[in-house]
Write a structure and sequence with these properties.
Layout lengths: L7 E3 L13 E4 L2 E7 L22 H19 L8 E9 L5 H5 L10 H10 L6 E7 L10 E7 L6 E3 L15 E4 L2 E7 L18 H7 L10 H19 L7 E8 L5 H11 L6 E5 L11 E8 L8 E3 L14 E4 L2 E4 L27 H19 L7 E8 L5 H10 L7 E6 L11 E8 L3
Parallel strand pairs: 4-5, 10-11, 16-17
Antiparallel strand pairs: 1-2, 2-3, 3-6, 4-6, 7-8, 8-9, 9-12, 10-12, 13-14, 14-15, 15-18, 16-18
Length: about 450
Amino acid sequence: MTDAKAPQSIWPDIPQPLMPYSPAVKAADWVFVSGQLASDFKTGIAPAAKATNANLEDELGLQSRFVMETLKPTLAAAGADIARDVVRIWQWFPYDTPTYEQFEQGDSWPGLSITPYLDVRNDYIFEPRPASTAVSIRALPVRKARIEVDMIAIADGGTSVGFAAPEGVPMPLAGYSPALRRGDWVFLAGEVPTDWVGDYGEARNMGMPSALAREARVNPHVWYGSSIEAQTDYTLAKLAKIAEAAGASLERAVKADVYIGHPSDYAGMDRVWKRWFPNNPPARCVIPYMGLGTRGSRIEIAFTLLANDSALTIERIETSDAPEPWSHEPQAVKVGNFLFLSQQMACDSRGALADGMVRHPEFPWYGLPGKNQMRYMLGNVAAICEAGGTQLENIVRRACFHDEGTWFADSIEEWAAHFPGVKPASTTMKIGGPLVVPGANALLDLIAYVPD
């Protein structure tokens, strides 16, 4: 019997990608849209997205409009409306700051204005706008690309309900919904530890705006506490209040997206995470070297939640056929028709690179680390999928974060070999620095479809 909810590729009349992915994949009324760039995939940036007069046309604005004009028919081909059915959106902006030295010093501010993009976005996506993440990264796979956008929509014929920040929680400036509910699901936008108006000056020693510093109770002149722990705690407190206002709670968290500046902030973040989620943490991916949207912020967190009144259940997946997580998250979380996997890197349960994942220093011409690491990760993913009641071939969304991109070609070739049928929607970028696990050259963030 044919499964009507099973993943299907969406191939609209848009420039066809060079990489082995589907422009979108639809499964169980969810539409997972690949990262879209302003490219014709023939010459690079499409002519329509290039400024003929830089004094009269904004390059980011032109590329943003081209991207929206390709996302709109892609969603329509899947039975979704870009204006009203998008529930989660990611915006990736390549930029050459912060530098590695700035990240090491706790400075994750890129000094980037995305207003031209926001002006274009508002022409296509209407209120209540989707939960949003916008961060800067090092590079995208098309030269001179200024933006990549990927998204999740739900084409169930329903409507989304947006929620403003509740009393006592600062309202973001960029015109997105702090929380958006669609059916059983609540999506929380990426939150950073800021009041959106704070004076940076008096708290610069803490790397935080002043109002945030007062809330977080961090004193830079004592021997205990750290900015990353205070910022994580403050951000989770904000998110807990937003979730409550939207009819959910962090206890109903299914998946967390965490963006940090420097990998060394991971341990402090994880200590706080254990206090907030002592027993049943959500699936989680933590990405370093992210340029964040407010000066002084060192972390951004977004959540996918179940509403409190949802009859769906949350099941945490564990299997001994894949390494145990080395930090505080399960291997995956299963809810309804979807399996949300935690971060995948080519490492063991200690958080150390697995054997055979890099070239032997005495034999520098031998070995394909990109292939080897991807094969290792997908072996673990396959085991986790099986434990969650599905298969590797049912992966529907993939975000891949490469360190320097050196092994990208080998990595994507290995990836493609595992998906001869429906190829998952995909977003790929370079963060330009080492991942939390030294030697790992890629990190995977994955969602899989689970048959009834």
